[in-house]
Design goal:
By secondary structure, the protein is an alpha/beta fold. The protein is built from 12 helices and 13 strands. The chain has a 9-stranded mixed sheet, with helices on both faces. It is globular.
């Protein structure tokens, strides 16, 4: 039978274009530590918004509670705060490992620290000095390998001055250094919470300060709040250079910056590899990786290995990276899809390699894409020549 014309026009609404692409907040911090009071359940990630909530859930004067309040004091501040109670008083390395495992499913976490847990510089061996911090390094490396990119922040904070502090710090913390660039080590000497004589958790404070900035912002000379140390215990210029040479971030009070505030004397990861030497490079790559995954997941199972299908995939990538160029996160980018290039070659002009590439990609349903980005980092050193004349 001939189809009936009425109602003349039929419209079906396709809402797929209204689907929001997932975004990962770049500044979500988690602090794991000792707390024997409060309503929070041990080894369960618990969010907090302000000091009153920290006091209720983790106790006002516990190590974890004080560290979380120091994190909350940073400006700009992270977008989200997790606290995780570890069993033990104080927690052992195994208990830290168990508490850190509770964060495995918290896929929005980007930074992790242990509450006021410094490297033990008095230990006789590097293994003993970082025994309780080793689970943090293992956690962030394992989670990053699994696709949930994280950075761990650890600290050294000797209470007295020594002539060989830099050498000792380097030797005792060697176990925290890693080629995966997933750890940052910050250093101060005699640092206390502002207005008190109690040792400050400079790792958590620094972590929250890092997380408050956009990923592409360099951490060099950015301020960290809520911490102070006596003038007599501040690092000398030689100490600052020595620590920075070892990719350890010193907290400094530079005379060139007005006010009585502490700042980061470097912006490096504790890695030993120049490719991922700086915190902002690691954070930018993590952010871009997540954007690409979230933006392209809709193409998996739908985009076809044809000129039109792969051109649409390329356009998606251009849209994702183009927004980063406009916001000055990256300077430029390039996209290479070899099978798409081969598909644009006429059949009679294709080489056997082109034909094989197309057949293999279609047979395996796998497409290889190379995305290159040009990153323009911040200036970290200006060399000025002053040439006076009469």
């Amino acid at each position: 039978m001939m189809p009936v014309s009425y109602p003349f026009i039929e419209i079906t609404i396709d809402p797929n274009a209204l689907t929001v692409v997932a975004e990962r907040a770049p500044g979500v911090v988690a602090v794991v530590g000792e707390s024997a009071t409060g309503t929070a359940v041990a080894e369960v990630p618990t969010t907090v918004e302000d000091a009153a909530e920290v006091n209720a859930k983790f106790g006002a004067n516990t190590r974890l509670g004080q560290s979380l309040k120091l994190a909350l004091a940073q400006s700009p501040r992270p977008s989200k705060f997790y606290g995780v109670k570890a069993n033990g008083s104080p927690p052992s390395a195994a208990q830290y490992t168990s508490a850190l495992a509770a964060l495995d499913a918290a896929d929005d976490v980007t930074f992790v620290s242990l509450a006021n847990e410094p490297a033990d510089l008095s230990a006789t061996s590097p293994t003993d000095a970082t025994a309780k911090l080793a689970p943090l390094k293992q956690h962030v490396e394992d989670m990053s390998d699994a696709g949930q990119k994280r950075i761990g922040v650890a600290m050294v904070n000797p209470t007295a001055k020594s002539t060989n502090d830099v050498t000792n710090i380097k030797a005792k913390t060697a176990g925290l250094r890693g080629a995966k660039a997933r750890m940052v080590l910050v250093a101060a000497r005699g640092a206390v919470r502002q207005g008190t004589a109690e040792t400050a958790d400079i790792a958590t404070a620094s972590m929250a300060a890092f997380a408050g900035y956009a990923p592409h912002i360099s951490m060099l000379l950015k301020p960290v709040a809520g911490i102070t140390f006596p003038l007599a215990l501040q690092f000398s210029p030689g100490d600052i250079k020595g620590l920075s040479d070892e990719e350890i971030v010193p907290l400094i009070d530079p005379a060139l910056i007005s006010g009585d505030t502490l700042h980061f004397g470097e912006g490096t990861t504790y890695t030993g590899t120049t490719a991922l030497q700086y915190i902002d490079i690691v954070r930018v790559l993590d952010a871009i990786e997540f954007r690409l995954k979230a933006g392209l997941v809709g193409s998996v199972g739908d985009a076809r290995i044809t000129k039109a299908g792969l051109s649409a995939v390329k356009a998606r990538i251009e849209g994702i990276l183009g927004s980063l160029v406009r916001s000055a996160v990256i300077d430029d980018f390039g996209i290479s899809i070899p099978v798409l290039d081969a598909l644009f070659i006429p059949d009679n002009a294709r080489t056997p390699a082109d034909t094989n590439l197309i057949a293999t990609s279609r047979g395996n349903r796998r497409v290889e894409i190379t995305v290159s980005i040009t990153y323009g980092p911040a200036v970290h050193l200006l060399r000025v020549t002053l040439a006076p004349k009469f």
